Amino acid sequence: MPHMPTDFDYLIQPGWNDSPAGHWQSHWQQQLGARRPQPASWQLPQLDDWVDALRAELAACRRPAIVVAHSLGCVALAHYSARFGGAGVAAALLVAPADVERAGAPAPLLDFAPLPNSRLPFPARVVASDDDPFCRIERAQMLADAWGAPLSVLPGAGHINAASGHARWDEGFAELAILKEGVQVPTCAA
């Protein structure tokens, strides 16, 4: 992993059912010394609860945070931003966003619909796969465009999780480095 400056805090925002020890987000959390929100339930997600947990964790950060979100966590962050203007977020890496509006979306995800489609008030990058079963690449492009974020497409990467062979996903740190190039380092007022 490349050296990551400490000008920011890092926050890992998992998706539905959390990110277990074998998931790249858990690996990254250790590598980055990141925080992780703790909603009441990862298995029965409720939008308000997830947004409140994210807000509380961001408020506990000492510096603006770079949020690394996966799947339903990307949607939770977009809702947070729509409600609170992205307070506390310096930038976000949005990996494999879940399309909660797709036909056949599991019932526990429906509370997160409709998908926020307003521009995010902080720099962001979307990373998606061209064969993600939970979000067609055309939909990922629409979300990236709406959120004002460039899209990186990983060919044949599935849902970019442990099940698709992304247990550590060290290659993803390159996406994080690209994101950070466009982020202003916070400065103290004189």
CATH-derived architecture: 3-Layer(aba) Sandwich
How much helicity do the residues have?
A: 25-40%
Over the alpha carbons, how many angstroms does the gyration radius reach?
Answer: 15 Å
CATH superfamily: Alpha/Beta hydrolase fold, catalytic domain
Order of helices and strands: EHHEHEEHEH
Could you tell me the strand content as a percent range? Answer: 5-15%
Terminal-residue CA separation = 35 Å
Outline the low-pLDDT stretches. 1-5
**Which sequence of strands runs across the widest sheet?**
1-2-3-4-5
Overall number of domains: 1
Structural class: alpha/beta
Organism: Crenobacter intestini
Keywords: Hydrolase
Pfam families: Ser_hydrolase
GO molecular function, one term: hydrolase activity
Give an overview in words.
- The chain is α/β, with parallel strands linked by helices and 190 residues long.
- The chain has a single domain (9-181), classed as 3-Layer(aba) Sandwich (Rossmann fold), CATH 3.40.50.1820.
- It is 30% helix and 15% strand.
- A 5-stranded parallel β-sheet has the order 1-2-3-4-5, with helices on both faces.
- Helix 2 (47-60) packs across helix 3.
- It starts with 8 loop residues before the first strand and ends in a 9-residue tail after the last helix.
- 46% of the residues are buried.
- Mean pLDDT is 93; it is low at 1-5.
- InterPro entries: AB_hydrolase_fold (IPR029058), RBBP9/YdeN (IPR010662).
- One of its GO terms (molecular function) is hydrolase activity.
